[in-house]
TrEMBL record:
Residues 16-165 form the Thioredoxin domain. Homodimer. This is Thiol peroxidase. The gene is tpx. It holds the Pfam family Redoxin. Keywords: Antioxidant, Disulfide bond, Oxidoreductase, Peroxidase, Redox-active center. It comes from Paenibacillus hodogayensis. The keyword Disulfide bond applies. It catalyses: a hydroperoxide + [thioredoxin]-dithiol = an alcohol + [thioredoxin]-disulfide + H2O. Belongs to the peroxiredoxin family. Tpx subfamily.
Length: 165
């Protein structure tokens, strides 16, 4: 059961589990250029999902993974996915000095949200969650938060990446 400030919300899509093959998705790098899971083939992927970069917890979550990114090596990519428009993501990253995570937008088709079971029906935002996917696109770590306003377990996610690197 997922909640937003204690109120129940419905998630659309299939819940992903450790051991699953990571589902493909199509998101936007900018208004024109798209990205898919295949664009990160051969890399360990930490996918940090946030409802909106312009909120306190999402801001802190993205800054924290940006700090960790430099320590994880060249074979690791950290993707932050939200439904924020790509130019809003770019503006936020510039203002926040975030330059080691890649922000991707699921605003057009909500392909990622549905494929990973994190699209919030009532808000059309993505539920805060973390996925670690190995270089062979197998899911190795999953955290779906029960309450949208809570922080994820940063250490567990980073340790899951380090175990693969």
């Amino acid at each position: 059961m997922a909640t937003f400030k204690g109120n129940p919300i419905n998630l659309i899509g299939t819940e992903i589990k450790v051991g699953d093959k990571a589902p493909n998705f199509t998101v936007n790098k900018n208004l024109v250029t798209e990205a898919t899971l295949a664009d990160y083939a051969g890399k360990i992927k930490l996918i940090s999902v946030v409802p909106s970069l312009d909120t306190g917890v999402c801001d802190q979550q993205t800054r924290r993974f940006n700090e960790e990114a430099a320590k994880l090596g060249d074979n690791v990519v950290i993707l932050t996915i939200s439904v924020d428009l790509p130019f809003a993501q770019a503006r936020w990253c510039g203002a926040a000095g975030v330059d080691k995570v890649e922000t991707l937008s699921d605003y057009k088709s909500k392909s990622f949200g549905q494929a990973y079971g994190v699209l919030i029906e009532e808000l059309q935002l993505l539920m805060r969650s973390i996925f670690v996917i190995d270089a062979n696109d197998t899911v190795q770590y999953v955290e779906y938060l029960g309450e949208m306003t809570e922080h994820p377990n940063y250490e567990a996610a980073i340790n899951a990446v380090k175990a693969l690197a």
